[in-house]
Amino acid sequence: MSSPSPDALLGPADVRELAAALGVRPTKQRGQNFVIDANTVRRIVRTAGVRPEDTVVEVGPGLGSLTLALLEVADRVTAVEIDDVLAAALPATIAARMPTRAGRFALVHSDAMDVTDLPGPAPTALVANLPYNVAVPVLLHMLETFPTIERTLVMVQAEVADRLAAGPGSKVYGVPSVKANWYAEVKRAGAIGRNVFWPAPNVDSGLVSLVRRTEPIKTTAARRDVFAVVDAAFAQRRKTLRAALAGWAGSAAAAEAALVAAGVSPQARGESLTVEEFAAIAENRVTEDAGETGR
What we know:
By secondary structure, this protein is an alpha/beta fold. Helices cover about 40% and strands about 15% of the residues. A 7-stranded mixed β-sheet has the order 4-3-2-5-6-9-7, sandwiched between helices. A two-stranded antiparallel ribbon has the order 1-8. Strand 2, helix 3 and strand 3 form a beta-alpha-beta unit. The longest helix has 14 residues, at about 85-95. It is elongated and about 65 Å long. It starts with 11 loop residues before the first helix and ends in a 12-residue tail after the last helix. Mean pLDDT is about 95; it is low at about 290-295.
């Protein structure tokens, strides 16, 4: 692999020049904050553990700051970009700044939530700077759709990072924590200051590492059925599970029966349960209509 030139990455002046040339103004609607610090994107790639044999998928590449850093290390990079102007410009930026790596880059112009397949080899890693308003659904969609993704590192709003990495018993443990843990071992992997972005956001950012489970959660319940229990438990998180799961089970008594069969106290609350316990509850749901096993 030939080494890209040291100035191939985008600095503050490069980002502003590119944006001005394209007539791009970062929008709050899409949560766009462009990274303007080369050291930060290299740190992200390092923390993600990207290897020379990896095929990396990146969501929301923007002007290409992180994309270029990924191309320095990975075998291939596929970027998914929803914005028309940014999607049209990115291949030219890659070709101009890293001509020797341009053939290893592919662009998918789409909303990440609509992506069900990617060109080239199956992705082995996901690395992305995700807008906080769509971070969790995009992350879960990509993990579900592409089971070959072994390692993920996402940069998200610090509060979202805390929720994703929270464990049972934590005040911020909730739906994102459990669903992410269904797929992977999740942990905080660092903090990112506001000054590395343009424009500087009003919130701090954090890195979250997700390493896919080598063995899936042992359960006979389907993922959607487990997730239905999780959604129901946290929709009324102050209630006991007996009350919170009454709608899901058909009645409070049916909820209690499922909980007892799963070895979970009907007086417990969702915030105290592991993903394995949610799966056990889903397994033990009993309905009058045997076909009704999820929603």
